[in-house]
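Handoff note, outgoing to incoming analyst
You'll be picking up this chain. Sequence as last confirmed:
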Amino acid sequence: MSYHIAVDSCTDLLPEMKEDSRICRVPLTLIVGEHQIIDDETFDQKDFLDRVAKSPVGPSSACPSPHAFMEAFGDDDEDAFGITLSAELSGSYNSAMLGARELQKQRPDKKIYVFNSRSACCGQTLILMCLRDCLEAGMSFKETVETVEKYISEQTTLFVLESLEHLRKNGRLTHLESVLVNALNIKPVMSSTPEGNIQKVGMGRGIKKGLVKMIDHVGKTAIHPELKRLAISHCNCAERAAWVKAQIAARYPFKSIVVVDTSGVGSLYAGDGGIVMAY
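Most recent structure output, in case you need it:
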């Protein structure tokens, strides 16, 4: 079946997704001080994390151009879809929408729909999996859009970070808040809101207790897990992600659990040692 799917580079792709020619990854640009890094297949996570650790200012990102999305949607009349990280966190969604509108001026018969994931990292991975399921099942364009939008509205994203230092550098925490949190070794459990913003839903003292709190929260929010996939993104902490996967599998009957390493943008948001989970 022919179609085009454009995903921004915050989407953590599984190996087989990288081999699918129908999926085009549109890179953001990562900025650490005066250094710029394109978040494509050349991304070096170790080098990026080293630069972030040494930088006095927090890393930031620049979204792709509308033209980059136009190219990813395909210069033909095949249906096209986009998946971007939450519009509350980045301009990537707006850029993709501008690209879609411009391309449709040139190709009025082409159908394009851009999904605001209201999530990030593995949340986008799961949306991509849902989208492909719909397309491979032969759903119409309208049915596909409705099914995926419903899936997005029911999805939950959680994360626990090893360090809040990059949030301090970006001005998300005051210096005093950062000192107190780090001194007490508090690890907040954060969740997506329905709009795609971020909220605190719990906390634990130490990374292990923080992760346990996050796993506990799954039981409070997951409806019919036996019908759902769960995904885990990790930033440079494969063993930690494997432990979380084992704990989830022992407690909840998700139909599948996938683990994936963070992309460049995911590494920027999660930070070294961070865990992101979506279901």
